[in-house]
Amino acid sequence: MNDPGKFILPMLGITVPHPFDDSEWRYEIKWDGYRCQIHWTDRLQVFSRSGRDLLQPFPDLADLAQLFDVPVILDGELIAWENGAPSYYALQKRAPLPHRVVVFDCLYADGEWLCAKPLATRLERMHRVVTTQGKIVVADGIIQKGTALWQSVRDRGLEGVMAKHLGSPYLPGKRVGYWKKFLVMTRQWTKVFTISQSSEGQWLWRMSPGNDSRAVIGTLPAPPGWSAEAQDVMTEKGKGSRPIWRLNRPLVVEVEYRELTTRGKMRHGRIRQWQYHT
Asked: How many whole angstroms separate alpha carbon 83 and alpha carbon 100?
C-alpha cells in the first residue's frame, strides 16, 4: 500500500454465537448500515465495502471534506436515522434522511500507514485526527464488558456488538478471529408446506409462519442430506417458469433471523433445527 487515494479491501470479522468478556478486547456497537471507507487526500473519496463510490448515491457526504486537516483513511459504517434509530431500509431507498458515518478505525494518517500497528495505536491516532462533529461520529467502545454491552444493544433493538482484539493489526480483505461479532437474532418456529429449486439445482424451503402456505416469510436452502426425491411431493404451478412443489408431509422448522423487512421477509435467516410435522 503506497497510494492513500486507492481503495483498501476492508478487514472483516467472524460471527460467534455468544458474547464474551475479556480485558484484551474492545467492544463496540455494530451499526446496521453500509460499510464505508473515507479517504481524504487532495480530494474526498468515500467507498463502499466493495469499492463502489458512495458520493454519487449519497451526495450529502460531500460535507465530510470540511472535517479533516490532514490526509487520512478511516474505516466506518454509513447509517441513516429514521424515527430515532438507524434504518437499513432508509439507506436502501435513498430516503432523504440525515446520514452519519460512524468511524471506528484509522488506516492512514498524515503520511503514515497504520495497518501493521495494533488496534490500540490506530484508535489513538484516529482520535487525534477526527472528532465527533457534522456527519462524523467517532465510535465509542468499552473494554472487557462485552456481555453487558450486548444485553444493552439487545434491549435497544440494535443489530449487535463487534469485539476487537486490542493488539490486532488491520488485515485488508481478511476475515479473521481478531474481530468477532455477536448479533441480536430472533428465533421463530415456522412450517414448510412448499419447496422450490434454485437455478443451480439446490432445494429451497419456503418458510410460512402459520398454516397458510401462501404466506412465506423467507426461502432458505434445505439442510445437507435432505432431498425432495425421497419425499412424497405434488407439483404446483409456480410463479414464472420456476415450479413450486407441495410437500404431502409438511416440515416444522425453527429459524433464526436478524429481523423482518418492511415486506415481511426474513433478513439474514438460517435454519436451526427441523422435524416432520406430526
From this structure: 15
CATH of the domain at 265: 2.40.50
Locus of grid cell 500507514: 113
C-alpha cell at 66: 470540511
Cα 73 from Cα 108, distance rounded (Å):
5
Q: Which domain holds residue 196?
A: 186-276
Nearest to 160 by CA among 147, 172, 142, 176: 147
Q: Give kind and range of the element (H or E) at residue 128.
A: helix 119-129
10 within a domain of the structure (yes/no): no
The DSSP line for 36-73 is EEEEESSSEEEEETTS-BSTTT-GGGGGGGGG-SS-EE
Nearest-angstrom CA–CA distance, 122 and 120: 6
For residue 170, how many C-alpha atoms fall within 13 Å in the half-sphere facing its CB? Answer: 23
From 183, 216, 247, the end of a domain falls on: 183
Task: Give the pLDDT confidence of 136-171 residue by residue, as tens digits.
Answer: 999 999 999 999 999 999 998 888 999 999 999 999
Last residue of a domain, one of 119, 152, 183: 183
Number of domains making up the chain:
2
pTM over 0.90: no
Cell of 45: 473519496
With 0-12 / 13-18 / 19 or more C-beta atoms within 10 angstroms meaning exposed / middle / buried, residue 231 is: middle
